[in-house]
Specification:
The protein is of the alpha/beta class and 207 residues long. Helices cover 33% and strands 31% of the residues. The chain is built from six helices and twelve strands.
Length: 207
């Protein structure tokens, strides 16, 4: 249930993103560009329906996305880096936010905020967070969405660690994961190696 997007442009921009010397503004821009490119793969199976339109030359049957609007769910705070690119692609999508922070001792997620659109059960919900490290936050986020009624869910991240993938697929084997890279391992502080550092700090210029 994992898809690694190996498109050359995604991999090139991810390399730039990983570099220590990449500054805050460039990091934000690259996150937005990568997530927009990834969006084509994430949304490749959206259902279509025929619609009658008039071109400047003649009437025709064309296609448009059918069903309720998508819902992008950003795990605060770093999920914002991916959310913007996906909204560039689908500006009409609904947006939910889930506030989680990682306890520095236990590395377990602690929820502090949740707001999502109505009717999650009829929407494709795309959960976004740059890193799938331990997997605890991703597991908690998807569990919360399922409790709120969501049935069709995907998880999108820039980097994943094997430990996080195992934890996530064990808890939610029905939820596909789309990532730009599967890295080597977690270190003793639960950071992905080789990774790209703390995505939230690099996005917002904090330490």
């Amino acid at each position: 249930m994992i898809t690694v997007i190996e498109h050359p442009l995604v991999q090139h921009k991810l390399t730039l993103l990983r570099r220590r010397e990449t500054g805050t503004s460039e990091f934000r821009r690259l996150c937005r560009e990568i997530s927009l490119l990834m969006g084509y793969e994430v949304l490749r199976d959206l259902p279509l329906e025929p619609v009658a339109i008039d071109t400047p030359l003649e009437p025709m049957q064309a296609f448009q996305v059918s069903g309720k609007k998508l819902c992008f769910v950003s795990i605060l705070r770093a999920g914002a880096g991916i959310l913007e690119g996906l909204l560039d692609l689908v500006p009409s999508a609904r947006v939910g936010h889930l506030g989680l922070y990682r306890d520095p001792i236990s590395h377990e997620p602690v929820e502090y905020y949740f707001k999502a659109p109505d009717g999650l059960g009829a929407r494709l919900c795309i959960v976004v967070d740059p890193m799938l490290a331990t997997g605890h936050s991703a597991v908690a986020a998807v569990t919360k969405l399922k409790q709120a009624g969501a049935k069709d869910i995907k998880f999108v991240c820039l980097l994943a660690a094997p430990e996080g993938m195992r934890a996530f697929t064990s808890a939610h084997p029905d939820v596909p994961v789309i990532t730009a890279a599967l890295d080597r391992q977690l270190d003793d502080h639960a950071y992905i190696r080789p990774g790209l550092g703390d995505a939230g700090d690099r996005l917002f210029g904090t330490k």
